[in-house]
Amino acid sequence: MKNADGSTDRTVCRLKSAHSDPVFTEITMQKNLQLTERQYTELLDGLMLAIEDAIDDSGLDIDCENAAGILTLTCEDNSKIILSRQTPLLQLWVAARSGGFHFDYDDEQGDWLLDGKGESFISLLNRCLTGQSGETVQLVI
User: Fold this and answer.
1) Long-range contacts of residues 83-88, Cβ cutoff 8 Å, at least 24 apart
2) Cβ-based burial of 131 (10 A; exposed 0-12, middle 13-18, buried ≥19)
3) Counts of helices then strands in the chain (DSSP H, E)
4) How much is the pLDDT for 35?
5) Which helix (H) or strand (E) holds 129?
6) d(CA 11, CA 33)
């Protein structure tokens, strides 16, 4: 994201290597720094409640459990999809049978988009729920 002066906001994280010598690797991540932690929390609180409501309204046999900011969706076959907050990164992470996915909030689109791919969160969630529940799922949030 470019600032008015043409510079770019970046967050630099240092990860310590598991080697005997302390080796540090810099990872530079482009961030939308306009999103505050408070806004992030409010967005995810609203999203997780909307998901629970949509599942309840759908009549699907999917159980929802929301605890400590983690929403666990359990399908009839006991497979799970887990939505978790990654507050330091301002990301939403999804763990499903088909893999792990990281989402960043896009202010311009007003949506959570899959990191590096641009797929919307609800599209991926519907795809994962369809694959794991064996039913066609088209939640609208």
Assistant:
1) 83/48, 83/51, 85/41, 85/44, 87/37, 87/40, 87/41
2) middle
3) 2, 8
4) 85
5) helix 121-133
6) 9
